[in-house]
Amino acid sequence: MHIQSQHFRSIWQQANAVYIIDQTRLPFDFVTVELTSLAQICHAIRHMQVRGAPLIGAAAAYGVALGIQQDASDEHLQAVVKQLIATRPTAVNLAWAAQRMQQTLMPLAVAQRAAAAWLAAQAIADEDVAQNLAIGQHGKALIAEKATVDANQAVNILTHCNAGWLATVDGGTALAPIYAAHDAGLKVHVWVDETRPRNQGASLTAWELAQHGVPHTVIADNAGGHLMQHGQVDLVIVGADRVTSQGDVCNKIGTYLKALAAFDQQIPFYAAVPTPTIDWQIARGAEIEIEMRDADEVAYMQGQTATGDIQTVRVIPRESPALNPAFDVTPARLVTGVITEHGVFAPDQLHALKTHSLGD
Description:
Helix 1 packs antiparallel against helix 2 and helix 4 runs antiparallel to helix 5. The chain is α/β, with parallel strands linked by helices. The chain contains eleven helices and 18 strands. The strands form five sheets. Strands 8-7-6-9-12-17-18 form a seven-stranded mixed β-sheet. Pfam families: IF-2B.
Protein backbone atom coordinates (compact mmCIF):
# COMPACT_ATOMS: atom_id res chain seq x y z
CA MET A 1 0.00 0.00 0.00
CA HIS A 2 1.14 3.53 -0.71
CA ILE A 3 0.10 6.37 1.58
CA GLN A 4 1.25 9.79 0.47
CA SER A 5 3.85 8.11 -1.78
CA GLN A 6 5.31 6.04 1.07
CA HIS A 7 4.96 2.25 1.10
CA PHE A 8 3.51 0.57 4.17
CA ARG A 9 2.45 -2.87 5.22
CA SER A 10 -0.34 -3.15 7.78
CA ILE A 11 2.08 -4.88 10.16
CA TRP A 12 5.86 -5.12 10.23
CA GLN A 13 8.77 -5.93 12.50
CA GLN A 14 11.64 -3.65 13.40
CA ALA A 15 14.28 -4.93 15.84
CA ASN A 16 12.36 -6.66 18.67
CA ALA A 17 9.15 -4.68 18.18
CA VAL A 18 6.09 -4.98 15.95
CA TYR A 19 4.47 -1.97 14.31
CA ILE A 20 0.89 -1.64 13.12
CA ILE A 21 -1.39 0.91 11.52
CA ASP A 22 -3.99 1.72 14.17
CA GLN A 23 -7.19 1.15 12.21
CA THR A 24 -9.41 2.54 14.97
CA ARG A 25 -8.00 5.98 14.13
CA LEU A 26 -8.82 5.88 10.42
CA PRO A 27 -9.97 7.58 8.28
CA PHE A 28 -9.31 10.81 10.13
CA ASP A 29 -5.85 10.09 11.56
CA PHE A 30 -3.09 7.90 10.17
CA VAL A 31 -1.20 6.60 13.21
CA THR A 32 1.32 3.79 13.59
CA VAL A 33 1.73 2.04 16.94
CA GLU A 34 4.70 0.17 18.42
CA LEU A 35 3.92 -3.13 20.15
CA THR A 36 6.55 -4.69 22.39
CA SER A 37 4.64 -7.28 24.41
CA LEU A 38 2.18 -10.14 24.04
CA ALA A 39 -0.38 -8.19 26.07
CA GLN A 40 -0.19 -5.26 23.67
CA ILE A 41 -0.67 -7.39 20.58
CA CYS A 42 -3.59 -9.26 22.17
CA HIS A 43 -5.17 -5.88 22.96
CA ALA A 44 -4.60 -4.71 19.37
CA ILE A 45 -6.37 -7.81 18.00
CA ARG A 46 -9.23 -7.80 20.49
CA HIS A 47 -9.95 -4.07 20.12
CA MET A 48 -9.55 -4.15 16.34
CA GLN A 49 -6.54 -1.90 15.97
CA VAL A 50 -5.68 -4.71 13.58
CA ARG A 51 -8.57 -6.58 11.96
CA GLY A 52 -9.32 -8.70 8.94
CA ALA A 53 -8.72 -12.46 8.94
CA PRO A 54 -5.33 -12.55 7.15
CA LEU A 55 -3.97 -9.61 9.14
CA ILE A 56 -4.91 -10.96 12.55
CA GLY A 57 -3.30 -14.23 11.50
CA ALA A 58 -0.03 -12.39 10.84
CA ALA A 59 -0.50 -10.45 14.07
CA ALA A 60 -0.87 -13.72 15.97
CA ALA A 61 2.36 -14.99 14.42
CA TYR A 62 4.20 -11.87 15.50
CA GLY A 63 2.47 -12.17 18.87
CA VAL A 64 4.05 -15.58 19.38
CA ALA A 65 7.44 -14.10 18.57
CA LEU A 66 6.93 -11.28 21.08
CA GLY A 67 5.54 -13.64 23.69
CA ILE A 68 8.51 -16.02 23.84
CA GLN A 69 11.41 -13.58 23.80
CA GLN A 70 12.00 -14.00 27.54
CA ASP A 71 10.71 -17.53 27.99
CA ALA A 72 10.65 -19.98 25.07
CA SER A 73 9.91 -23.11 27.08
CA ASP A 74 7.34 -25.62 25.87
CA GLU A 75 4.91 -24.67 28.61
CA HIS A 76 5.15 -20.93 27.97
CA LEU A 77 4.97 -21.30 24.17
CA GLN A 78 1.77 -23.31 24.52
CA ALA A 79 0.33 -20.71 26.90
CA VAL A 80 1.15 -17.88 24.49
CA VAL A 81 -0.56 -19.67 21.60
CA LYS A 82 -3.63 -20.38 23.73
CA GLN A 83 -3.86 -16.74 24.82
CA LEU A 84 -3.67 -15.46 21.25
CA ILE A 85 -6.28 -17.89 19.93
CA ALA A 86 -8.70 -16.70 22.62
CA THR A 87 -8.60 -13.07 21.45
CA ARG A 88 -11.12 -13.52 18.60
CA PRO A 89 -12.89 -16.81 17.85
CA THR A 90 -14.38 -16.58 14.35
CA ALA A 91 -11.53 -15.94 11.91
CA VAL A 92 -9.69 -19.22 11.34
CA ASN A 93 -6.46 -17.52 10.19
CA LEU A 94 -5.62 -16.48 13.75
CA ALA A 95 -5.61 -20.01 15.14
CA TRP A 96 -3.97 -21.34 11.96
CA ALA A 97 -1.05 -18.92 12.26
CA ALA A 98 -0.56 -19.38 16.01
CA GLN A 99 -0.62 -23.17 15.68
CA ARG A 100 1.73 -23.08 12.71
CA MET A 101 4.17 -21.05 14.79
CA GLN A 102 3.94 -23.63 17.57
CA GLN A 103 4.52 -26.51 15.16
CA THR A 104 7.53 -24.73 13.66
CA LEU A 105 9.14 -23.87 16.99
CA MET A 106 8.48 -26.93 19.13
CA PRO A 107 11.06 -29.21 17.40
CA LEU A 108 13.80 -26.60 17.97
CA ALA A 109 16.00 -26.30 21.02
CA VAL A 110 14.57 -23.78 23.48
CA ALA A 111 17.59 -21.50 23.02
CA GLN A 112 16.92 -21.29 19.27
CA ARG A 113 13.23 -20.48 19.41
CA ALA A 114 13.24 -16.72 20.10
CA ALA A 115 15.26 -15.89 16.99
CA ALA A 116 13.50 -18.49 14.86
CA ALA A 117 10.10 -17.09 15.81
CA TRP A 118 10.80 -13.76 14.10
CA LEU A 119 11.79 -15.55 10.90
CA ALA A 120 8.71 -17.78 11.01
CA ALA A 121 6.38 -14.81 11.58
CA GLN A 122 8.01 -12.92 8.73
CA ALA A 123 7.48 -15.94 6.47
CA ILE A 124 3.75 -15.99 7.26
CA ALA A 125 3.50 -12.26 6.51
CA ASP A 126 5.38 -12.60 3.23
CA GLU A 127 3.23 -15.55 2.17
CA ASP A 128 0.09 -13.51 2.80
CA VAL A 129 1.31 -10.76 0.46
CA ALA A 130 2.14 -13.26 -2.29
CA GLN A 131 -1.24 -14.99 -1.89
CA ASN A 132 -3.10 -11.71 -2.14
CA LEU A 133 -1.28 -10.64 -5.28
CA ALA A 134 -2.25 -13.96 -6.89
CA ILE A 135 -5.87 -13.51 -5.76
CA GLY A 136 -5.79 -10.14 -7.45
CA GLN A 137 -4.74 -11.61 -10.78
CA HIS A 138 -7.35 -14.39 -10.72
CA GLY A 139 -10.09 -11.96 -9.73
CA LYS A 140 -9.00 -9.42 -12.34
CA ALA A 141 -9.90 -11.95 -15.03
CA LEU A 142 -13.49 -12.03 -13.73
CA ILE A 143 -13.70 -8.24 -13.90
CA ALA A 144 -12.15 -8.25 -17.37
CA GLU A 145 -14.90 -10.60 -18.58
CA LYS A 146 -17.51 -8.08 -17.43
CA ALA A 147 -15.58 -5.23 -19.04
CA THR A 148 -15.83 -6.84 -22.49
CA VAL A 149 -19.61 -6.23 -22.50
CA ASP A 150 -19.04 -2.48 -22.90
CA ALA A 151 -15.50 -1.12 -22.68
CA ASN A 152 -16.82 2.42 -22.24
CA GLN A 153 -18.77 1.55 -19.11
CA ALA A 154 -17.21 0.96 -15.72
CA VAL A 155 -17.69 -2.45 -14.12
CA ASN A 156 -19.72 -1.81 -10.96
CA ILE A 157 -18.57 -3.97 -8.04
CA LEU A 158 -20.24 -4.05 -4.65
CA THR A 159 -18.20 -4.99 -1.59
CA HIS A 160 -19.02 -5.30 2.10
CA CYS A 161 -16.85 -4.45 5.11
CA ASN A 162 -13.12 -4.00 4.47
CA ALA A 163 -11.17 -6.71 2.68
CA GLY A 164 -8.46 -4.50 1.24
CA TRP A 165 -4.85 -4.12 2.17
CA LEU A 166 -5.84 -2.92 5.62
CA ALA A 167 -7.37 -6.36 6.29
CA THR A 168 -4.21 -8.16 5.18
CA VAL A 169 -0.47 -7.66 5.45
CA ASP A 170 -0.65 -6.01 2.02
CA GLY A 171 -2.56 -6.34 -1.23
CA GLY A 172 -6.04 -7.19 0.05
CA THR A 173 -8.41 -10.06 -0.70
CA ALA A 174 -11.74 -8.77 -2.07
CA LEU A 175 -10.14 -5.51 -3.16
CA ALA A 176 -7.06 -7.17 -4.70
CA PRO A 177 -8.88 -7.92 -7.99
CA ILE A 178 -10.20 -4.34 -8.05
CA TYR A 179 -6.73 -2.85 -7.59
CA ALA A 180 -5.32 -5.21 -10.23
CA ALA A 181 -8.07 -4.30 -12.70
CA HIS A 182 -7.73 -0.58 -12.03
CA ASP A 183 -3.95 -0.71 -12.42
CA ALA A 184 -4.38 -2.61 -15.71
CA GLY A 185 -6.47 0.21 -17.10
CA LEU A 186 -9.91 -1.40 -16.74
CA LYS A 187 -12.73 0.94 -15.80
CA VAL A 188 -14.10 -0.02 -12.40
CA HIS A 189 -16.37 1.60 -9.86
CA VAL A 190 -16.91 0.27 -6.34
CA TRP A 191 -20.09 0.50 -4.29
CA VAL A 192 -18.81 0.61 -0.70
CA ASP A 193 -21.25 -0.63 1.93
CA GLU A 194 -20.88 1.46 5.08
CA THR A 195 -20.89 -1.81 7.11
CA ARG A 196 -22.47 -1.00 10.41
CA PRO A 197 -21.89 -1.16 13.27
CA ARG A 198 -18.15 -0.33 13.04
CA ASN A 199 -18.38 1.23 9.58
CA GLN A 200 -15.33 -0.57 8.18
CA GLY A 201 -16.56 0.09 4.66
CA ALA A 202 -17.20 3.80 5.10
CA SER A 203 -14.09 4.42 7.17
CA LEU A 204 -11.54 1.91 5.85
CA THR A 205 -12.49 0.65 2.38
CA ALA A 206 -13.43 4.12 1.15
CA TRP A 207 -10.22 5.56 2.61
CA GLU A 208 -7.89 3.07 0.95
CA LEU A 209 -9.73 3.20 -2.39
CA ALA A 210 -9.29 6.97 -2.31
CA GLN A 211 -5.59 6.54 -1.52
CA HIS A 212 -5.26 4.34 -4.61
CA GLY A 213 -7.39 6.54 -6.86
CA VAL A 214 -10.14 3.96 -7.49
CA PRO A 215 -13.57 5.45 -8.29
CA HIS A 216 -16.03 4.54 -5.56
CA THR A 217 -19.22 5.62 -3.80
CA VAL A 218 -20.17 4.95 -0.18
CA ILE A 219 -23.73 3.66 0.25
CA ALA A 220 -25.94 2.81 3.20
CA ASP A 221 -25.94 -0.90 3.97
CA ASN A 222 -29.57 -1.22 2.92
CA ALA A 223 -29.04 0.33 -0.54
CA GLY A 224 -27.30 -2.66 -2.12
CA GLY A 225 -30.43 -4.61 -3.06
CA HIS A 226 -31.99 -1.53 -4.64
CA LEU A 227 -28.91 -0.97 -6.80
CA MET A 228 -28.94 -4.61 -7.88
CA GLN A 229 -32.60 -4.38 -8.89
CA HIS A 230 -31.80 -1.39 -11.08
CA GLY A 231 -28.89 -3.00 -12.92
CA GLN A 232 -26.22 -0.95 -11.20
CA VAL A 233 -24.19 -3.88 -9.79
CA ASP A 234 -22.26 -6.23 -12.10
CA LEU A 235 -20.76 -8.46 -9.43
CA VAL A 236 -20.26 -8.70 -5.69
CA ILE A 237 -16.87 -9.49 -4.17
CA VAL A 238 -16.43 -9.86 -0.42
CA GLY A 239 -13.74 -11.27 1.83
CA ALA A 240 -14.29 -13.90 4.52
CA ASP A 241 -13.16 -14.74 8.01
CA ARG A 242 -13.77 -18.44 7.50
CA VAL A 243 -14.89 -20.62 4.60
CA THR A 244 -16.03 -24.17 5.33
CA SER A 245 -14.88 -27.20 3.38
CA GLN A 246 -18.25 -27.23 1.59
CA GLY A 247 -18.13 -23.56 0.65
CA ASP A 248 -20.22 -21.76 3.28
CA VAL A 249 -18.80 -18.27 3.72
CA CYS A 250 -18.60 -16.59 7.12
CA ASN A 251 -18.03 -12.86 6.77
CA LYS A 252 -18.99 -9.55 8.36
CA ILE A 253 -22.59 -9.29 9.49
CA GLY A 254 -24.81 -8.23 6.58
CA THR A 255 -23.00 -10.27 3.93
CA TYR A 256 -25.76 -12.87 3.84
CA LEU A 257 -28.34 -10.24 2.88
CA LYS A 258 -26.17 -9.05 -0.01
CA ALA A 259 -25.78 -12.63 -1.21
CA LEU A 260 -29.55 -13.18 -1.12
CA ALA A 261 -30.16 -10.05 -3.18
CA ALA A 262 -27.42 -10.98 -5.66
CA PHE A 263 -28.85 -14.48 -6.04
CA ASP A 264 -32.32 -13.10 -6.66
CA GLN A 265 -31.00 -10.74 -9.34
CA GLN A 266 -28.67 -13.36 -10.88
CA ILE A 267 -25.58 -11.29 -10.06
CA PRO A 268 -22.33 -13.24 -9.45
CA PHE A 269 -21.30 -13.35 -5.79
CA TYR A 270 -17.67 -14.15 -4.99
CA ALA A 271 -15.66 -14.51 -1.80
CA ALA A 272 -11.93 -13.78 -2.14
CA VAL A 273 -9.74 -15.60 0.38
CA PRO A 274 -6.27 -17.09 0.76
CA THR A 275 -6.37 -20.83 1.42
CA PRO A 276 -5.53 -20.46 5.16
CA THR A 277 -9.03 -18.97 5.50
CA ILE A 278 -10.58 -22.30 4.46
CA ASP A 279 -11.32 -24.46 7.49
CA TRP A 280 -11.12 -28.10 6.40
CA GLN A 281 -12.31 -29.27 9.81
CA ILE A 282 -15.76 -27.70 9.40
CA ALA A 283 -18.27 -28.67 6.72
CA ARG A 284 -21.19 -26.38 7.54
CA GLY A 285 -21.37 -22.74 8.53
CA ALA A 286 -23.66 -23.60 11.45
CA GLU A 287 -20.61 -25.09 13.18
CA ILE A 288 -18.73 -21.76 13.24
CA GLU A 289 -18.62 -19.85 16.51
CA ILE A 290 -19.98 -16.37 15.81
CA GLU A 291 -18.28 -13.66 17.83
CA MET A 292 -20.65 -11.50 19.88
CA ARG A 293 -19.13 -8.08 20.42
CA ASP A 294 -19.91 -5.25 22.84
CA ALA A 295 -23.36 -3.73 22.35
CA ASP A 296 -21.81 -0.26 22.60
CA GLU A 297 -20.51 -0.72 19.05
CA VAL A 298 -24.15 -0.56 17.94
CA ALA A 299 -25.20 2.10 20.43
CA TYR A 300 -22.41 4.57 19.65
CA MET A 301 -20.81 5.98 16.50
CA GLN A 302 -17.57 7.90 16.01
CA GLY A 303 -17.20 10.78 13.60
CA GLN A 304 -15.54 14.08 12.85
CA THR A 305 -17.20 17.40 13.63
CA ALA A 306 -17.14 20.44 11.36
CA THR A 307 -14.26 21.80 13.45
CA GLY A 308 -12.20 18.64 12.93
CA ASP A 309 -12.71 17.13 16.38
CA ILE A 310 -13.29 13.37 16.69
CA GLN A 311 -16.33 12.63 18.83
CA THR A 312 -18.32 9.57 19.84
CA VAL A 313 -22.09 9.95 20.10
CA ARG A 314 -24.90 7.66 21.18
CA VAL A 315 -27.43 6.91 18.42
CA ILE A 316 -30.02 4.77 20.25
CA PRO A 317 -32.17 5.52 23.31
CA ARG A 318 -30.42 4.96 26.62
CA GLU A 319 -33.27 2.64 27.63
CA SER A 320 -32.78 0.38 24.60
CA PRO A 321 -30.54 -2.68 24.63
CA ALA A 322 -28.56 -3.69 21.53
CA LEU A 323 -27.30 -6.98 20.10
CA ASN A 324 -24.05 -7.16 18.17
CA PRO A 325 -23.21 -10.41 16.33
CA ALA A 326 -20.07 -9.64 14.33
CA PHE A 327 -20.52 -12.15 11.49
CA ASP A 328 -23.08 -14.13 9.53
CA VAL A 329 -22.88 -17.15 7.25
CA THR A 330 -23.71 -17.18 3.54
CA PRO A 331 -24.58 -20.75 2.48
CA ALA A 332 -22.66 -22.23 -0.41
CA ARG A 333 -25.75 -22.34 -2.63
CA LEU A 334 -25.60 -18.53 -2.86
CA VAL A 335 -21.88 -18.39 -3.66
CA THR A 336 -20.82 -18.28 -7.32
CA GLY A 337 -17.17 -18.94 -6.56
CA VAL A 338 -14.27 -18.57 -4.16
CA ILE A 339 -11.30 -16.61 -5.50
CA THR A 340 -8.05 -18.01 -4.07
CA GLU A 341 -4.37 -17.72 -4.88
CA HIS A 342 -4.71 -20.97 -6.84
CA GLY A 343 -7.66 -19.84 -8.97
CA VAL A 344 -11.44 -19.50 -8.80
CA PHE A 345 -13.38 -22.48 -7.50
CA ALA A 346 -17.08 -23.21 -7.19
CA PRO A 347 -18.00 -24.18 -3.61
CA ASP A 348 -18.33 -27.86 -4.55
CA GLN A 349 -14.83 -27.78 -6.10
CA LEU A 350 -13.00 -26.55 -3.02
CA HIS A 351 -11.81 -30.06 -2.18
CA ALA A 352 -9.29 -29.67 -5.04
CA LEU A 353 -7.55 -27.03 -2.90
CA LYS A 354 -7.10 -29.21 0.16
CA THR A 355 -3.68 -30.55 -0.85
CA HIS A 356 -2.40 -27.01 -1.44
CA SER A 357 -3.77 -25.76 1.85
CA LEU A 358 -2.44 -28.58 4.01
CA GLY A 359 0.93 -28.24 2.37
CA ASP A 360 1.23 -24.51 3.10
